[in-house]
Amino acid sequence: MAAVEYLGIDIGGTNVKMGIVNSETGQITNFYSHDTVSWRKSGHFEDRLGEAIGLQLIDNKNITKVGIGLPGMINSARVTPIEITAIPELNNVPLVEILKKRFPTVDFFLENDANAAALGEFYFGEERIDESYIFITLGTGVGGAAIIGKKVFTGGRGNAMEPGHTPSVNGKVLERNIGKNELLDLANSMRKEFRGITLLPDDGTISTTGLVASASEGDVLALQVFAKVGELLGENLCHLVAILDINLILIGGGLSASFDYILPSMTTKMEYWLTKYHADGLTIKRATLGNDAGLLGAASLCF
Amino acid sequence: MAAVEYLGIDIGGTNVKMGIVNSETGQITNFYSHDTVSWRKSGHFEDRLGEAIGLQLIDNKNITKVGIGLPGMINSARVTPIEITAIPELNNVPLVEILKKRFPTVDFFLENDANAAALGEFYFGEERIDESYIFITLGTGVGGAAIIGKKVFTGGRGNAMEPGHTPSVNGKVLERNIGKNELLDLANSMRKEFRGITLLPDDGTISTTGLVASASEGDVLALQVFAKVGELLGENLCHLVAILDINLILIGGGLSASFDYILPSMTTKMEYWLTKYHADGLTIKRATLGNDAGLLGAASLCF
Lengths: 303, 303
What we know:
The structure is a homodimer of 303-residue chains.
Chain A: E1 5-11, E2 15-22, E3 28-35, H1 36-41, H2 45-59, E4 65-70, E5 73-74, E6 81-83, H3 95-102, E7 107-112, H4 113-124, E8 133-138, E9 142-148, E10 151-152, H5 175-178, H6 180-190, H7 208-216, H8 220-244, E11 248-252, H9 259-273, H10 276-279, E12 283-286, H11 293-300
Parallel strand pairs in A: 1-4, 4-7, 8-11, 11-12
Antiparallel strand pairs in A: 1-2, 2-3, 5-6, 8-9, 9-10
Helix pairs in contact in A: 4-11, 6-8, 7-8, 8-9
């Protein structure tokens, strides 16, 4: 298939980013970013978005497909946002219908941003991967997506894959045990046991960057925190593997910088729980798309 | 759609059952059952099966679709059994190809038996239900299936939905905590704490029938055992709901006779863990197809 170009749009709580993406190389041109708040304040977010799309289409007359990633839940027909916490103005706005009316010759594809980013790994990732995989994002929360046969798995009602909301230890769901803040709380609370054998600060100011840097230098406290993260994540991933029958797992998100330090305990835990059928061929990798994951993911919806 | 007739075949470890099923009423005629062992011993299970199908087709010339349920894993193209523990002779036998060669004008649909039974609830269940639901079977093991948009969800590699193999308490997977034998072990081991306040036998001979009967009479030991089952099942079901975004759950299998006694603790547990989005509208029901679930399920593959 010859390379074509798609317009990818990553709508986030802070910025709306868009760019023309080459379907073969993943190269981004005509990059444009606008702050989200001022569009929200205008009272007509969808019109501001439409105008920005219009400018891109005037400059790029070859574009016939536009992919849009949104930070929240959309309806199962994939045309209307239903719960976008960061941009509630979009809730129940028939976005695809509105855009289609404005640009009748263009097709629009709407998807949750984590799902889009997951799909982007297939089309734009560094190496060729299976057509089915589980995608986990580690950050403030624990997000997820599943790609099955090159398609976003949307489940029964359209919003599948919330691994962060699954039961974990201490009576808390997974992301309330291993989300960014919880992980720092854990590190700070363990700090005093490690007096003299860790260089991490003892005044409650441990940062995730500091934790990752310390782990890379063999710091025992940092390594122990990430081992705990790997253990808890691994246990919940076993549910995903046994339910979805997928044995490739990609880990992305800001905290995936700790990948090397969470992997050993995660693997041990999963080998303990999984049956031979599921454990054979289990592969856990770090996702390869970095800052552009959102935009490339949105463009990948056009394939 | 006018009623048509399908041939349903339920291949089990003990018996192979088949019958002509009316697509509208679910009425079964021409019922035929043969013991599985003698076909296995013949060394040509697929030929014996072919002969039995041939007899049915001679008697029922209107049949053009045959659904077959098998107790194990089949390949993702749904044409070849890959791991049938009870009938290993069928492993890697290209069953659909063989049957199609023998009966060129007939279409064959192969599926795992739990998946087939789950689908049967949609087409032949007592009441109209959603097109998407989770189906759990309680028995010696804990089996499962998911129907999404009236279709069997097969996951990434074809063998999705093994809730019995997901992590649970005591370092054991779910079915090793609440399978039939584990439940009886639990009841027998708790027996002495309930001296004088339970009528269940104290000589290690508690049966599941006895437990269900006692629970219906308010026996505290029986009720406590089922409350524990509901708790553990409920916790693991929360993973299924958050991963699949399905909020209708049907419970079937022999031990679903205990449905009324496991429901309260299961519901409490799920309401504790689930987000509002997932908890709203959550419905847990007992599956309605009884002994004929396997055969009707097999026939439902033909829709």
